[in-house]
Amino acid sequence: MSASCGVSSTEAPAAWLNHYAAIWHCEFEFREDADHHPAPVCMYAYEQHTRAEFELWRDELRACRRVPFDIGANSLFVAYAANAELSCFLALGWEFPKNVLDVYVETIAAINGNSAIWPQKKRPSLLETLELYGLAAGMDTQEKERMRRLILEHSDYTHEQQREIQNYNRQDVMETVKLLKVLAPAIDLPRALLRGRYMAAVARMEWRGLPIDQEYLRLLLANWEGLQLHYIRRDDGFGLYDGTSFSEHRFQELIAAHGWYWPLTATGRPELKLKTLGKQAQRYPELKKLVKLRDLIAELRINQLANTIGADGYSRCPLLPFWTKTGRNQPSGRDKMFLPALPAWLHGLIAPPPGWAIAELDWDGQEVGLMAALSSDPAMIEDYTSGDPHLSFGRRVKLLPPDATKDTHREERNKICKPVVLGQNYGMTPYGIAAKTGKSLLWARKIHALHRLTYPVFHRWLADMIAQAKFEGMISSPFGWPQAVTADTTNRSLMNFPAQAGGADMMRLAAIAATEAGIAVCCPVHDAFWVMAPASEIEDVIATMKRIMTRASELVTGGLPIGVTVEALVPAPHRLGDVRKPKDAMWSEVKGLMTDGLLATGS
């Protein structure tokens, strides 16, 4: 590795490598079948100690009823992005290895947060990782892309193409061998193996996917342009759309005409991200309809959702584990959108197959509970364990009466107390509080001070944590996910890290336990899971999943249980949109427009 990365590529292998009787590096090349599952084309496996190797073409792979090399407790399975290779294990019906080490994940752990080494937001490819460590690659980006197209765009291959693909496959394996030798001295093996177990859980979850109502999706696709035009005609009060196309020029004219302050992109154009539009709508309320329009339907590319749907009716999208600095997933793919990341009304498409049921389980106030536990603030722990930390804070500082409940003071809880409580986890200033709550700056300064007086242990811990991270040049989650702390790392980022990285730890532990227990986990969604089971078993599965999630929370917090709520339960033949409580107005409205034929009349 280059000197700037702090590790030499000639460094001797770590002693732990000799603890394993066998270290198998493995790589598959594969296509996708109609369900978006991998269809293995070939596999190459190489044993690091003895240099033994297996090279199998697809017909030979299909004939294998078990893994052709040792995957037991005394062996280590190594891959770059192991979830892809383990998905091929699932396609072949093979048992998973006992020990998995993912060179991709350990590369991320080594460089995470260090913008001097890796300034890009995306994670490095194998080729980029080799370059990062100063290792020679067998082919350049263009050649790799040519090989990728050759594999994906053909179902039959000539003898020459077969050898070319197998050589490409072998080359990737040998490059991971070189990478492991460089990474090994700095690898924290127990934590690396835990991360490897999570990549196995990811493979299982990506394989499962979310079941959806295909007929209803087809209806949406057939009516999508009509739906967009309907809502644009209704809600585009400024005339910013030509058909379904947004006119940036007209928007610039609108900004100028009203004299609005507007953030600009690096190229000097108005920033149009929904997050920016939402913030601007708080300043200029006349924009609220436009924000809602763009968010809910006008700018949605529903084909990106359709691209995730397999022939079996399941939506499958890459989870992109460890994609964020805090170790969270960031699901997306080439021209694909993760269904739970789309507006909530589209989640209504979720529907289990006949005889099954699907449920969403969510940790209650995960971030508040984590920060309370990690800081050991007795008042914050007491307020979290009360069942509603937002109401408890409001009562403590006399924003709410002593007998206030979620039902009697819902608006004050949700729009005043909750933003303040959550915002303090990442250092929200009085200016931020005023903007978020719509209150005066004087009021915001008072409530900001009251939070510090109410939870002094938490605020001292937060300040100490920032100072320690800057001193050490590193910050880690409770289960060891690291982030480098440099001159570019902001205080706000450091404040946000414990809750987000701790939440990611919690999610990974629960995903590992649940998938290894045989629970059909469809996907994780930040601090929630979708699980499914035969309808007769769903209550037992929910009870087991609750125990797993609660235990995972106790392991991360050091003993404080984070509660778990069933947010949704959908038995077949229902869709989430039709049974969700409270009813989603947008889902019902769109359903009515399509089924009543209102779009065809130009209504």
Overview of the molecule:
With 603 residues, this protein is α+β, with helices and mostly antiparallel strands. It has four domains: 3-208, Nucleotidyltransferase, domain 5, CATH 3.30.420; 214-308, no CATH class; 312-368 and 475-603, Alpha-Beta Plaits (2-Layer Sandwich); 378-454, no CATH class. It is built from 23 helices and 15 strands. The strands form five sheets. The chain has a five-stranded mixed beta sheet with strand order 3-2-1-4-5. Strands 13-14-10-15 form a four-stranded antiparallel beta sheet. The chain has a two-stranded antiparallel ribbon with strand order 6-9. The chain is globular. The N and C termini lie far apart (64 Å). The model is unreliable at 1-11 (pLDDT under 50).
Comma- or semicolon-separated keywords:
15 strands; alpha+beta; 13% strand; disordered N terminus; globular; Alpha-Beta Plaits; 23 helices; four-stranded antiparallel β-sheet; 4 domains; Nucleotidyltransferase, domain 5; five-stranded mixed β-sheet; 603 residues
Helical proportion, percent range: 40-55%
Instruction: Tell me, briefly, the overall form.
Output: globular
What is the radius of gyration? 26 Å
| Terminal Cα span | 64 Å
Instruction: Name the CATH homologous superfamily of the largest domain.
Output: Ribonuclease H-like superfamily/Ribonuclease H
If strands are numbered along the chain, what order do they take across the biggest sheet? Answer: 3-2-1-4-5
Work out the count of structural domains. 4
Q: What is the multimeric organization of the chains shown?
A: single chain
Which regions contain 5 or more consecutive residues with pLDDT less than 50? 1-11
**What kind of sheet is the major sheet?**
5 strands, mixed
Count of helix runs: 23
Strand content: 5-15%
Tell me, rounded to a whole number, the average pLDDT.
93
The helix/strand class is alpha+beta
